[in-house]
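Many introductory courses stop at the sequence. We go one step further.
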Amino acid sequence: MTRRRFLLVVATLVAASYGPGGVLAYRAAPPALSSRLSNQEFWKLSSSLSELSGFFRSDNLLSNEIFLQYVVPELTRIAKPGRVYLGVGPEQNFTYIAALKPAMAFIVDVRRGNLDLHLMYKALFELSADRADFVSRLFSRKRPEGLTASSSVAEIFRAFEHEEPSEALYRENLQAIERQLTTTHGFALTSDDLGGAKGIEFIYKAFFTFGPELTYSSINGFGGFGGGRAMPTYADLMTLTDESGQARGYLSSEASFAIVKDLESRNLVVPVVGNFGGPKAIRAVADYLKDHHALVSAFYLSNVEQYLRQDAIWSDFCRNASTLPIDGTSVFIRSTRGGRNGGFGSLSNELEPIADVVKNCGPQ
């Protein structure tokens, strides 16, 4: 047998596995994650992984976690790039995505409104050439003169302080968002997704109305406060830094913005409707990742575990999470009260290996 023939035989045997009854069966290697999803694949994936929409007390259009960047240096040392990121909630996911540079991301949230929020963001990322263009579209304010690729995020938001909201830009941008999603992508959005009580028009109107001063509690009946604490604005969160003073937000540089824009443009940030303790969403994501031979790098939980425990379904979430494909470097990003940075009841973001949490969940 020639050396070439021998190597071919070995390669063939490695690709084979034994089927029922010990009969040798050929099995194709699992497909890797795609470098781009078609519009049809994206919409089918988002829909097929999702559960029915659930309830949360807040519309949650913006984070309130002022220490979310503090874990980024440790996160990038531990978690590996080029894997899969999971998260929950609104824009803070973009900062972690920009830091981790994943091959794909899934945003799982109990509310259909969060899926609509991320579809709005998707359209705005795709339509915007750079950070200043993005901020202009996000808040329906005219782009100030003098902003360049080298402008700091603080300089960008200071410039927008002097720009008034424009009803004309709002209408133009809203039409562009809807056209990008329904015509360019062909997504089968419902009337509730587009103009419903919590749909894209409602969401985008809040960004127009409050501008960069939008807070977590702007439209939630808290009067601008939550639990006695003033909430950070969008501009505040974008101009915060990590513990060493380095800006790591997704708008901190054109490079960070471009990472998220690129993934969004390739349909690789997939919003999913699902309860962490529910019967389908997380397990369906896990099955998809296993089918594509992919591992989770990080799973951002915010403080959802607090509510899972209140509802006595934390163990259901733990068992769901135990089905995810992970290794020793895969981490949860948790937001908890107190902790090393969360004084005065603020949320502190911390890391914990997923394997350490799920090893005692019990049967799947």
